[in-house]
Amino acid sequence: MNAPSPAIVAQSAVRRLPRIALWLFCLAYVLPGFIGREPWKNADMQGFGYMFELARGATDWLAPTLMGLPPEFDALLPYWLGAWAIRASAGWLPADLAVRLPYMGLLALTLLATWHAVYQLARSPRAQPVAFAFGGEANPKDYARALADAGLLALIACLGLAQFSHETTPSLAQLAFTALTFYGLAALPHPLAETPNGESGWRPRLRASWPLASLATGLAGLTLSGAPTLSLLFALGGAGVLAVQTCANEAQRQRQWRWALGIAAGGLAAAALALAMGLWHWRLDVQGRDWRDWRALGRLVLWFTWPAWPLAVWTVWRWRHQLRHRHLALPLWLVGVALASTLTTPYADRSLLLALPALAVLAAFSLPTLSRSISALIDWFTLLFFSGIALIVWVVWVSLQTGMPAKPAANVARLAIGFEPSFSALAFALALAGTVAWGALVRWRTGRHRAALWKSLVLPAGGAALCWLLFMTLWLPVLDYARSYVPVVETLQRTIRQDGTPAGACVEVTGLARSQVAALRYHGGFDLRLARDDEPQCPWRIAGADPANAGNATATAMPGWQWVTTARRPTDPRDNLRLYRAVR
Q: Which residue ranges make up each domain of the chain?
């Protein structure tokens, strides 16, 4: 016997969020963080370094290296995208900005695919709200659209999404292809069964083929982005979820099994692609963890997925009698696979990133069952939390500009040694506009309006977008100074040029991380060579900081070389670089 749906939703509660407001909201979230900054340490600079090497033809496209070092992620497609963007925009865009263009598209694709995944799952028969005795229940299409709006807001509200979704790394590519795979799995059971509204012709057939194309692109993209195991598991799990769904008749059952077998075959094809290109490597890391490590992982899950995880837990409880149905089983499978990857791989935070689209779907399905008291609690907590963060950002910025109050500026000067504040009228205008919009949003939310399913997630998403905007406008100069390698490289360049060495000097390197090598190559324009123990190849050598004595500026003994200076990183002595001159 089928349990009744816990969702009780009237037609008045599924009014749509204005499209222009939703598009502007997404645009305000996507652009900040991609524009106006330098590549940051470590993963952002490292990923850009491999793209830059590919673009200038210094490495093999099927096995990219940076000074002979392979990337930490066994990925190809993310580096190809950046390299193609650099080549396509050569001469009219800086390389570090050019690589961000396809990644802006990947983030926008993530938001779009998540919206459509929620929409497709919400139109499932088992996901529909209870039918009223005298009518007036939500129309299925309007209900699905309202939940899709809510799912998109829940994704943007997740605290862990902000930084990693604005970096040029394989993590963002994996997130986008996960969302594409999710949409394909959500929409595939009936893409070609019937055309909408009885339409005929090539247009409805083209629309019906999108889920299949999305699934194929998502599985192949995940494989080429360094996650072939997840690609296979997503496909097999999605096929299994589809295979166990109840059917109205035998014809539907046969069609359903054909789609399930096709999805499984797609996953196996993606696995074969990974094996053929040498991208399948196990990176399990479950040994040697103690209680503190597991507690740290628990804290990571709690804050990284906030506020989606409490709503997802509520969904599991209220919909517990429908967990085997597709609208819940599919996102639960994706979340479970991503969590398992988080607990068993060394890149816990980046693996957890892939759970966010499915968690956002689960969070959206909690809204038809939330009481007014819980909704009000979410609003008040969100209002206080994000308003407090925004106030802190403004107070620190005012202190840096005016010196009043003095303590915040003194703390910044202590943490970012040598930073000189600057004023940007554009950044100030954008930050002020975002703050005013936040005030208007709070006023609207606390006013008397007709109920809408997505209202409980407006403030969490708006607050997350506001704080990210403020960080990427008011605080961008100090964040750029603290997190980029430009101050360190400029110190080295200045010292080398004072000695009369021309630009593009030959420099040996030793003991450097991948991101440091990439920074020296791009920001410094040096001709880098790997250091050897025999005769010097170049007049200069750059060495990494001594891990045992990173904060000390004195030279480390290096036979045949004379210490010249130490380029100190303003915020992290472990990233100090020591410059040596060859002894002639």
A: 11-369, 372-483, 486-582
Look-up of token digits 């703390």:
411
pLDDT tens, position by position, 361-405: 999 999 999 888 888 888 899 999 999 999 999 999 999 999 999
| Residue 240 one-letter amino acid | G
Rounded distance between C-alpha atoms, residue 298 and residue 227, angstroms:
23
Which residues are 563's β-sheet partners? 580
Q: What is the dihedral of CA 285, 287, 290, 292, to 10 degrees?
A: -10
Q: What is the pLDDT of residues 10-44, one digit of tens each?
A: 888 888 888 898 998 899 999 999 999 999 988 99
Angle CA 98–39–102, to nearest 5: 30
Token pair recorded at residue 98: 């050019």
Q: How many CB atoms lie within 10 A of CB 287?
A: 5
Residue-wise DSSP of 85-154:
HHHHTTTTS-HHHHTHHHHHHHHHHHHHHHHHHHHHHHTSGGGSPPPPTTS-BPPHHHHHHHHHHHHHHH
* Residue closest to 364 by CA, chosen among 212, 207, 186, 234: 186
Would you report the helix, strand and coil content of the chain in percent, each value rounded to 5? 65, 5, 30
Tokens of 309: 């995880």
Closest-CA residue to 128 (of 136, 140, 141): 140
Element (H, E) at 580: strand 577-582
Residue 193 is predicted with a pLDDT of: 44
- Does residue 343 contact residue 351 with C-beta atoms inside 8 Å? no
Please state whether beta strands 527-530 and 506-510 pair in parallel, antiparallel, or not at all (unpaired). Answer: parallel
